[in-house]
Amino acid sequence: MKTNKLFATMLALLCVIGISGCDKEDTEPGTESALNTDLYFEADMNGKSLFLPEGKDGYVSEAGAYYGPAKTTGCVSRQAMRLKGADMRKSLEVSFIKWSETCIKSCSQVEEMFKVSSYTFGNLETTSDERVIDGVLIRYTDVDGKVWSSDFGSGDQTGSSFRIVEHISNTKDKNSKKITTTEFSAKLYDGNGNKIDLTNGKMMSRSVVCE
């Protein structure tokens, strides 16, 4: 599998704020540049509407995979869906996190992470002896470049929800295996006591990087 250099900057950031000791990113770059204007992220952020469609102001939808060592043993695998601008500001990433003895890379294993179902929220920032908390992770980078995450700070997600409502083959381009639509609400934290209430969230994105 090829390494997508477009993800290098994001990986470095995620290694700092995400998996301690993160050592590898494995992504599958597309070979086509055509945009799919059906793909988007929308939500109310502290009551203010935000709509980011692919093709507007340089925004693109990407799928990615990350692998890193767990705190004790095994591997933390992340499958990511991202809607981002050219400089990563005002972008959103949804990741599905799972710990296992070996990294999850085969298509059959990865597909087990994408079910039309409700999900609990995961946590990479746990300070306990737990490896990580499996589940979904939402990270938002605002216009100033500040990263807000569902697992920063207290990570409290009381009243939040996340659901995959559709998971279909990507027949429009070769930039991912699947197209996944999600609906969610969450509390995003900056780690300094500040919070964004994300409500009415919906994302339709390229997804699934596998071998």
TrEMBL record:
This one is known as Lipoprotein
Q: Where is the signal peptide?
A: 1-21
Q: Which UniProt keywords apply?
A: Signal
What organism does the UniProt record list as the source? Pontibacter anaerobius
